[in-house]
């Protein structure tokens, strides 16, 4: 399968949710998925369900914690180690789909360099690649085959409603 690059970006809710939906569809059709999460590390329902299908979904979490404008040295070192492990898993496995959740955020904050991202994409070229996160860089948008911008028109978070288990995570 020669895959396409999908990007889900913007300030609206639903970027990771779109990637999760594509993952569910893929595993429902017997495809092998590598679901990589940059930055996120908290418990989420989607990771719980993916772990019930270890023969179809490999989950890798590269949790750096919250980034205040620029990453600190420990966050950068964490991501460097993660990138090596992610690259090895991509080389060792024949994935049909690779989700790079929050890759755009990792790029825009400087956690991951453009050359690192390009190397991941190159290694994954035979798989469908799903990239999520705000602030997708223009070079990545140009390279993609499908780009969806999630735009916030209204959100209950603005009224002080906190993230809810089973809905936001």
Automatic annotation (TrEMBL):
Entry annotated with the keyword Transcription:
no
Return the InterPro entries for the record: CblAdoTrfase_CobA (IPR003724), P-loop_NTPase (IPR027417)
Q: EC annotation?
A: 2.5.1.17
Q: Which GO terms describe its molecular function?
A: ATP binding; corrinoid adenosyltransferase activity
**GO terms of biological process kind:** cobalamin biosynthetic process
Give the enzyme's main class according to its UniProt record, as a single word: transferase
Q: In which pathway does it act?
A: Cofactor biosynthesis; adenosylcobalamin biosynthesis; adenosylcobalamin from cob(II)yrinate a,c-diamide: step 2/7
Keywords, A to Z, come to: Transferase
* Summary of the function given for this chain in its UniProt record: Required for both de novo synthesis of the corrin ring for the assimilation of exogenous corrinoids. Participates in the adenosylation of a variety of incomplete and complete corrinoids.
Instruction: Give the family per the record.
Output: Belongs to the Cob(I)alamin adenosyltransferase family.
Q: Name one Pfam family in it.
A: CobA_CobO_BtuR
Q: Work out whether the entry's keyword set contains Transmembrane.
A: no
Any idea what this protein is called? corrinoid adenosyltransferase
Q: Which Gene3D superfamilies does the annotation name? A: P-loop containing nucleotide triphosphate hydrolases
Q: Which reactions are catalysed by this chain?
A: 2 cob(II)alamin + reduced [electron-transfer flavoprotein] + 2 ATP = 2 adenosylcob(III)alamin + 2 triphosphate + oxidized [electron-transfer flavoprotein] + 3 H(+); 2 cob(II)yrinate a,c diamide + reduced [electron-transfer flavoprotein] + 2 ATP = 2 adenosylcob(III)yrinate a,c-diamide + 2 triphosphate + oxidized [electron-transfer flavoprotein] + 3 H(+)
